[in-house]
Amino acid sequence: MNLRSLLTESLNPLILGHQNADPDAICSMIAMRDLYLAIRPEGKATLVCDDVSRLANQVLSHFSIDVTYSDFSEDTHDLVILLDTNSEFQLGPRVRTLLTDPARTVAIDHHEVNSELSSIAQHQIVDSNTSSTCELVIGLYDDLDVPISSTMANLLLTGMLFDTRRFFHSGRDSFLMAVKLIDAGANYDSCIRSLIIKPDRSERIARLKAAGRLQVHNMNDWIVAISKIGAYEASACRAMIEIGADVAIVAGKTSKGVVRFSSRSTRHFSSETGVNLGTDVMEHIGKIIGGEGGGHANAAGANGTKNRSEGMTKALELLQSAIEKSVGEKVG
Ligand SMILES: [Mn+2]
Known about the structure:
44% of the residues lie in helices and 18% in strands. It has 13 helices and twelve strands. The strands form two sheets. The protein has a six-stranded parallel sheet with strand order 3-2-1-4-5-6. A six-stranded mixed sheet has the order 7-8-9-10-12-11, with helices on both faces. The structure holds manganese (II) ion. The site of manganese (II) ion has 6 residues, from loops. Manganese (II) ion binds at residues 24, 84, 110, 132-133, 163.
């Protein structure tokens, strides 16, 4: 693929990110538009995502980024650039209808490779070993020989900081890129501060409720915590990992009848067992709850509309058998 010619030939690309866009998604989307406009200054790029997370909005206002994005586009676009997203599912039901021509779609992503992606995007810049999509975009600035402005450097560094958990999940390449961004004008301290959030009251209550309802299971000496809640499943999972679980699963159900599963595991757990919460657990749970699921080895989820209790039972069974399978393989 020649990205430069795809960008040069496009008059009005559509830049898409996953639903509830996090800082990595929104910052890579904005930087991608900046990169496009450097290549094609008279062009018009449109940013679309289902919604933007509260933290991502905080980052944008922290850096006074006046960006227009919408939750849909009625126009026709000659190119679609998909960022931080590896499946139609991650876009949300409305935005996914904008994926119409795989030959005119570029995917730039760092999630686990999803077999479905080739049917969506014939052009792919995908590397699941990279810790953020922002890093892939930094590489594109290099490839296309476009300088990074200080504003874009701040956004890209913030996206990296978010997805690497402040360099908790990082390697040499990430550090080199961070230095490059600082040299381009990023203010490290300001980037860090843009991501500090005190969870609001309802989120803290949800975490505490999840902790109060949690059940602890011992699976081959791994501590598995499972709970249920009305909202903030992902936050509740992180809280359970912080207080000592190796694996946390939280099942949510909103008043509108949406059933949502979230799961997290420690790196230690996944490296020792090889269990992938996305493919081993949440993809199956997605079907049970009448929707879809997927994600990373250490963080995965599923969205649906039914069978929360059945999903919880099944999630534990799937996890147990995935752990046993790994033990079996080690012994064998
Ligand atoms: Mn990401």
